[in-house]
């Protein structure tokens, strides 16, 4: 037997990663290409993509590396970070993630590959986990309604400002911020306030609201509790004064402190905001972390972001769903309560489970330990002659050392500890869950004092004010008491995960959402301590590895998109949109064109586009969409002429929201530019462009990119996301910056969009690794296979369902839209019926009724292999045959498998009164009984849940009833 000689170099290269990432192999691609009518991927995309936008050159990226090589590179970057004991504070703290939560939530694809729970019947596990989160926030803040997480504390405070203006009695006046609020929160609020004409006043409110400010009118007040300096003050008098002025009061609160301190609700606050980071979520150089907002009952229906509520299913059983969706941006557009489209679900689940695992007693113990360390530290410093500025504090001290602050901080650094230099005289010191005796000794040494911990512990009294000590019960629901052992917690997490459908089970063919492989190699570095345990305000020289990774990712994303500069700060696509529009606004103002405030948006655009434009101080003018799904160019030109002198920007999604490559995009861009406007290319559909066309070169001035779509950051059940903004050179001076990290953006920038300098930096290694693993050619092939897969599905389904829109050559881009409306009209079978019936076949439904009501938008991505694509097509074809049975009368129009879908295992028991069989219900054609996914509930009554709003864990007797 002889073998062909293979060189060592070939053997060393191993299997290219793109073969792991791209589902269809060469043989499958050939079969799919033949079905679509092309001989190669290049031939297909040469026809599909208009010539006017095609890239002339290959992507100038480093060549692809193996998984082992990329992990080695990342280890090298991680080693360049210095992880010191962080005692900086300012909203970011060391925390210990219970390993059972780290392994079984954060590192578990059953949780991190799930999609936003818009199909609640197959999302009951993560919806229950989010209800736990909401319960924790609501009960600790003392306010009855909490949302399912916001992006971070800074943006939550900015949302509270907008909410205060929207629902408060005072419609003019200022937004008043206490000077002891977190500096990054103040900066985010100022960034968000300026475009909408809100005046922000920062003042010392320790002695109340100054008369000269009260006279101007105040619509909202923000207080920090405890303050950034560590001070714990009783805010009752200020809250009462604010209410007398008609203002809405927001308290930015520390949840761990609230286990010991009187809740904001009891103190009189209307809104509470903050972050749940210290509930078991690593600092990650700034994120991602789950922000929170809780409100008084009368504000519940104006709450921004997502809200999980309790409803019932078709059998009357309790079931969870997203409540009050009609207020959200995807429905209300420019009239939405906010532009937020991405929450922080994965991190909210972790924080909620941290509370479930520890329970109220465990949380109090952690808080008492943290406070005790701070008290002993303070007493030791006082004994050594150091002044502690505030007498009441929870975990943070401000020490006064005239002229010596820099020396003290340097001494602590030498001892492996980061402190915060406030100014030349003041040093901030924060204790947390990870603080130990060694840190106390190191801090004392840095200040030049010595302390005996045992003696100081015996002599140190409590420092929390007696009038603010909490005396009410919280977290009394059984879920916070019955999972104390790891065995119990492990099984609870497994039970919840088993209720859900995520990418680890099968295909999630959502159009415009790009649910693709999140490779394990990409995910692995996220939990390394050198990336996870770094404070975002640590000195830059301690983050060399991170900053190198960030710079390289920015440069590579610029290369991919054809732009000149990228900012990674925006921590969601919606925030990237806002950052891009603020850059456009600043550019026009710098040119003296302050009147340019009109934003043209096609009627089919994502709802975030319009909501973001309003937040950026722009007037939305809608442009019609033609019957072919493209922008109505006649209407566009008419709107350009009408608003020529006021035109600021056109926002356009490319490929279009209808899933086609518009051939007139370059002419559209040119027309806007000729009128003095800018072009914003929404990057939601970038998965159809990478390696084939570059928005920055075919007419775009600015784009946001969804790293949680095209660049493999997981959706995590509805977040985390990252939405970097990419711009051409003339807009680069107006990218986001940050007051605490000068390297985060240009000095002339618009201010911070997110609380952390580089947003959700902790998950950037995922996209860095993806680009490094694939290389330029691999990224291009991924795009080509995504386009191939979408066209393969379109061709297979076209004989059974109308495919609404086609581009050049009769082809779609990376997604296709099938029309169910004629079938609904003929048979009564609704788009909901089809979506829920797909669950019985073992699939998550495609995107429903967007951008056209009564349709399904399907995006297979490049990650699904041919077997899975065919399984989906077979299911859709089988459902078409079932619809035909309803249409012919073989099945009753009100009692058939589609109308009754999904079917649970419980539904099979007892009498069966339906005119179809149990087998037809749960084992339709093609479903393997041994691999069956069983939904835990039947179809959920959404209207019931909205009418009867319950958004925290209901008592057990509610389930019994």
TrEMBL record:
UniProt KW keywords: Oxidoreductase, Pyridoxal phosphate
List of residues that carry N6-(pyridoxal phosphate)lysine: 709
Keyword Oxidoreductase: yes
Catalytic activity: N(6)-[(R)-lipoyl]-L-lysyl-[glycine-cleavage complex H protein] + glycine + H(+) = N(6)-[(R)-S(8)-aminomethyldihydrolipoyl]-L-lysyl-[glycine-cleavage complex H protein] + CO2
Record Pfam families: GcvP2_C, GDC-P
An example Gene Ontology molecular-function term: glycine binding
Oxidoreductase found in the keyword field: yes
Main EC class the enzyme belongs to: oxidoreductase
Domain Glycine cleavage system P-protein N-terminal stretches: 19-447, 454-736
Matches recorded under Gene3D superfamilies: Aspartate Aminotransferase, domain 1, Type I PLP-dependent aspartate aminotransferase-like (Major domain)
GO BP, one annotated term: glycine decarboxylation via glycine cleavage system
GO CC terms, sorted: cytosol; glycine cleavage complex
Cofactors, names only: pyridoxal 5'-phosphate
Residues of the Glycine dehydrogenase C-terminal domain: 782-903
Superkingdom to which the source organism belongs: Bacteria
Database matches in InterPro entries: GcvP, GDC-P_C, GDC-P_N, GDC_P, PyrdxlP-dep_Trfase, PyrdxlP-dep_Trfase_major, PyrdxlP-dep_Trfase_small
Family annotation (SUPFAM superfamilies): PLP-dependent transferases (SSF53383)
Function: The glycine cleavage system catalyzes the degradation of glycine. The P protein binds the alpha-amino group of glycine through its pyridoxal phosphate cofactor; CO(2) is released and the remaining methylamine moiety is then transferred to the lipoamide cofactor of the H protein.
Subunit organization: The glycine cleavage system is composed of four proteins: P, T, L and H.
Family under the similarity heading: Belongs to the GcvP family.
Name of this chain's protein: Glycine dehydrogenase (decarboxylating)
Record organism: Streptomyces lydicus
Gene that this sequence comes from: gcvP
């Amino acid at each position: 037997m002889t073998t062909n000689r293979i060189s060592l170099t070939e053997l060393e290269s191993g299997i290219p990663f793109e073969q792991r990432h791209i589902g269809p192999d060469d043989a499958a691609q050939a079969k799919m290409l033949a079905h679509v009518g092309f001989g190669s991927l290049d031939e297909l995309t040469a026809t599909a993509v208009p010539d006017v936008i095609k890239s002339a050159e290959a992507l100038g990226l480093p060549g692809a590396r193996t998984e082992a090589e990329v992990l080695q590179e990342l280890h090298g970057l991680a080693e360049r970070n210095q992880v010191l004991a962080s005692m900086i504070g300012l909203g970011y703290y060391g925390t210990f993630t219970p390993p059972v939560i780290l392994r079984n939530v954060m590192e578990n694809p059953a949780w991190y590959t799930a999609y936003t729970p818009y199909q609640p019947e197959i999302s009951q596990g993560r919806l229950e986990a989010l209800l736990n989160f909401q319960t924790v926030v609501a009960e600790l803040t003392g306010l009855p309604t909490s949302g399912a997480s916001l992006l971070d504390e800074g943006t939550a405070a900015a949302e509270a400002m907008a909410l205060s203006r929207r629902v408060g009695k005072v419609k003019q006046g200022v937004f008043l911020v206490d000077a002891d609020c977190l500096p990054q929160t103040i900066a985010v609020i100022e960034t968000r306030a300026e475009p909408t004409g809100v005046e922000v006043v920062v003042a010392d409110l320790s002695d109340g609201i100054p008369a000269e400010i009260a006279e101007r009118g105040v619509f909202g007040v923000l207080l920090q509790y405890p303050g950034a300096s560590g001070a714990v003050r009783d805010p009752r008098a200020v809250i009462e004064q604010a209410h007398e002025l008609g203002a809405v009061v927001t308290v930015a609160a520390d949840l761990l402190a609230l286990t010991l301190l009187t809740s904001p609700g009891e103190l009189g606050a209307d809104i509470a905001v903050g972050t749940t980071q210290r509930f078991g979520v690593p600092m990650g150089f700034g994120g991602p972390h789950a922000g929170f907002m809780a409100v008084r009952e009368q504000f519940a229906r104006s709450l921004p972001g997502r809200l999980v509520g309790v409803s019932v299913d078709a059998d009357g059983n309790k079931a969870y769903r997203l409540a009050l969706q009609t207020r959200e941006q995807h429905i209300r557009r420019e009239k939405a309560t906010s532009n937020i489209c991405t929450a922080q679900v994965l991190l909210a689940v972790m924080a909620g489970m941290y509370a479930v695992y520890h329970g109220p007693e465990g949380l109090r113990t952690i808080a008492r330990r943290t406070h005790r360390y701070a008290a002993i530290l303070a007493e030791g410093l006082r004994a050594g002659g150091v002044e502690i500025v505030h007498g009441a504090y929870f975990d943070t001290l401000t020490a006064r050392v005239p002229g010596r602050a820099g020396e003290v901080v340097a001494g602590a650094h030498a001892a492996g500890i980061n402190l915060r230099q406030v100014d030349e005289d003041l040093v901030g010191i924060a204790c947390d869950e990870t603080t130990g005796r060694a840190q106390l000794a190191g801090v004392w040494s840095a200040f030049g004092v010595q302390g005996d911990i045992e003696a100081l512990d015996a002599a140190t009294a409590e420092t929390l004010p007696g009038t603010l000590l909490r005396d009410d019960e919280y977290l009394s629901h059984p879920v916070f008491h019955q999972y104390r052992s790891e065995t119990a917690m492990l099984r609870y997490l497994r039970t919840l995960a088993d209720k859900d459908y995520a990418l680890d089970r099968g295909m999630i063919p959502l159009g415009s959402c790009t649910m693709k492989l999140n490779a394990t190699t990409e995910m692995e570095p996220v939990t390394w301590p050198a990336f996870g345990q770094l404070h975002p305000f640590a000195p830059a020289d301690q983050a060399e590895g991170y900053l190198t990774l960030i710079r390289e990712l920015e440069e590579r994303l610029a290369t991919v998109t054809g732009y000149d500069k990228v900012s990674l700060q925006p921590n969601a696509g919606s925030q990237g949109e806002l950052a891009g529009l603020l850059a456009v606004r600043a550019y026009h103002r710098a040119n003296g064109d302050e009147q340019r405030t009109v934003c043209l948006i096609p009627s089919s655009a994502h709802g975030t586009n319009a909501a973001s434009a309003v937040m950026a101080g722009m007037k939305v003018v809608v442009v019609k969409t033609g019957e072919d799904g493209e922008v109505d160019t006649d209407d566009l030109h008419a709107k350009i002429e009408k608003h020529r002198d006021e035109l600021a920007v056109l926002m356009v999604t490319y490929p279009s929201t209808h899933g086609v490559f518009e051939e007139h995009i370059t002419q559209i861009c040119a027309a806007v530019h000729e009128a003095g406007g800018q072009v914003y290319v929404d990057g939601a559909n970038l998965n159809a462009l990478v390696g084939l066309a570059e928005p920055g070169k075919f007419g775009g001035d600015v784009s946001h990119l969804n790293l949680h779509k095209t660049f493999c950051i997981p959706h995590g059940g509805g977040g985390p996301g990252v939405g970097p903004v990419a711009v051409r050179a003339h807009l680069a001076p107006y990218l986001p910056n940050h007051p605490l990290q000068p390297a985060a953006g240009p000095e002339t920038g618009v201010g911070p969009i997110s609380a952390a300098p580089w947003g959700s930096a902790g998950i950037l290694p995922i996209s860095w690794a993806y680009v490094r693993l694939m290389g330029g050619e691999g990224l291009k092939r991924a795009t080509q296979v995504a386009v191939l897969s979408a066209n393969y599905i379109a061709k297979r389904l076209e004989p059974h369902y109308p495919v609404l829109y086609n581009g050049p050559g009769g082809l779609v881009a990376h997604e296709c839209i099938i029309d169910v409306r004629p079938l609904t009209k003929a048979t009564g079978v609704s788009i909901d019926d089809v979506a829920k019936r797909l669950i019985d076949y073992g699939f998550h439904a495609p995107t429903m009724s967007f951008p056209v009501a009564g349709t399904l938008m399907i995006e297979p991505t490049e990650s699904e292999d041919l077997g899975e694509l065919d399984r989906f097509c077979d299911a859709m074809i089988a459902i078409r045959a079932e619809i035909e049975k309803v249409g012919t009368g073989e099945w009753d129009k009100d009692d058939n498998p589609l109308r009754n879908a999904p079917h649970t295992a419980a539904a099979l028991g007892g009498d069966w009164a339906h005119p179809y069989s149990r087998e037809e219900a749960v084992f339709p054609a093609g479903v393997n009984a041994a691999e069956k996914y069983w939904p835990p509930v039947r179809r959920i009554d959404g209207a019931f849940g909205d009418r009867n709003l319950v958004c925290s864990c209901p008592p057990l007797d509610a389930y019994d009833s």
